[in-house]
Amino acid sequence: MLTNPNTCGLFERDIVTIAEAVHEAGAYFYCDGANFNAIVGRVRPGDLGVDAMHINLHKTFSTPHGGGGPGAGPVVFSQLLAAFAPLPLLLHDKNGFRLLEDPAEAKASGVTPFGRMCAFQGQMGTFVRALAYMLSHGADGLKQVAEDAVLSANYILASLKDVMSAPYEGPCMHEALFDDEFLKDTGITTLDFAKALIDEGFHPMTIYFPLIVHGAMLIEPTETESKQTLDRYIAVMRGLAVEAKAGNIARFKNAPLRAPRRRLDETLAARKPVLRWKQPKAAE
Amino acid sequence: MLNPQGRPTRAVSSEATGAPKTISGDRGLDHDEKLIFEIGRTDVTGVDLPDVVLTEDRLGGLKRKSIGLPGLSEPETLRHYVRLSQRNASIDASLYPLGSCTMKHNPRLNEKLARLPGFADIHPLQPQKTVQGAFTVIAELARWLTELTGMPVNSVSQRARPARKANCAVSSPFAPRLKRAGNRESASWFPNPRTAPIPPRRRSPASLPRTSERGPMAASISRHFARSLDRTLPL
Prior knowledge:
The structure holds two protein chains of two kinds. Chain A is α/β, with parallel strands linked by helices. Chain A has eight helices and ten strands. Chain A has two domains: 2-131, Type I PLP-dependent aspartate aminotransferase-like (Major domain) (Aspartate Aminotransferase, domain 2, 3-Layer(aba) Sandwich); 140-263, Aspartate Aminotransferase, domain 1. In chain A, helix 4 packs across helix 6 (227-245). By secondary structure, chain B is mostly helical. Chain B has a domain at 106-173 and 210-235. Chain B has helices at 13-16, 36-39, 74-86, 99-102, 108-114, 117-120, 132-149, 217-230; strands spanning 153-154, 168-169, 178-179. Residues 157-167 and 171-188 of chain B have low confidence and may be disordered.
């Protein structure tokens, strides 16, 4: 299994060689389509030797993901695995569409599905949204989605490189990745830096992920943010980086000051979560 | 309650500006909303329900006097949830740089189309001939995914080889539980990719419509979904 572009926001250049080596070893090559947003319309995973890949519709095709769902991740298969795709199959004949759900009928028509999906036909509402996104962009527009997403991330990376620190040389794909090298000896951590962003009115970026980068800050603006919005964000990030280096520790350690709640005890919340409301004794 | 660093968990903006502490506990129009259990009363409801027709009680000793559900009037209910929603940090309120991995802008056109009754009000168990439009959408989505990935079969819904038509297996992603179709067989079930002949990949450019070829965008999308909708009947 491989994610391409990977979680550091970099394109895996040796992917065809890797696919050939996997096949040579008698195995199949699974790709995580999590970062398809960066290559949609530009690169076809099938051409890279991938045998199976899921496509998170929310990641690439703009379906909602707030609150965790509803998720939908169609899976694509290569020619080699095609005959094993799970039931039901959607067939089209002179009478229109119908679902092939009977394993015996599938076998008779020459396919050998390895099982049947339990979740009916999937998330219809999510399918409609994803198709609406595709139709409103067209083939050319989807290509531009990937271009704009990559351009936005590189704009952020290039604009902040001199005041922050990037762990990898060169341009990125759809995510700009920084580490905490620029905070060295300031006493300020990546967490403090992220909390200070809340006071500035921005949701913090992904922090401490990927795990292989120390104090990672992963910023993904996607294709939809305007240059004006990106410029405002960059100005705030630059300002905070300068403040941090100037030793203005208080605004970071005390952040957030302007949120509905101050910094919470995340360890206690994780170890002793309060999941159920109990009636206070006095009210009983 | 204080956390180990000794920081208060409440915002201190009013103290910072020298404003007096409010009687209500709210900070101006920035309301500090409590849990619904803390503001609701168990003896009120925003809905008038008809009196229960008296029947023989078959619950034995299991019947509870009160189940303690919080009740609110209609405006109180609205205010509670509107205030909570305003507490949400969201991509609709500000830049949310978690990106496509977690949170990407949801175009409102998508929402409008997903709410069309022919898609929103159908049920997966209604007769297949009444959801032909929904199947059209699934097949069209499958075609786009197939072209964009260069991989022939796709499990939104997949076309069976012999039929040589729209090719998709309709299956949902984050619910990958499978019922076994037959006996669990060994790995030899699948062809060995080392020895199996790899079919030539089609390298032709994707044959998907461009925006410029589809005429005015909104009109063309409406037409597409209207055609699909004509063949889907809500329950």
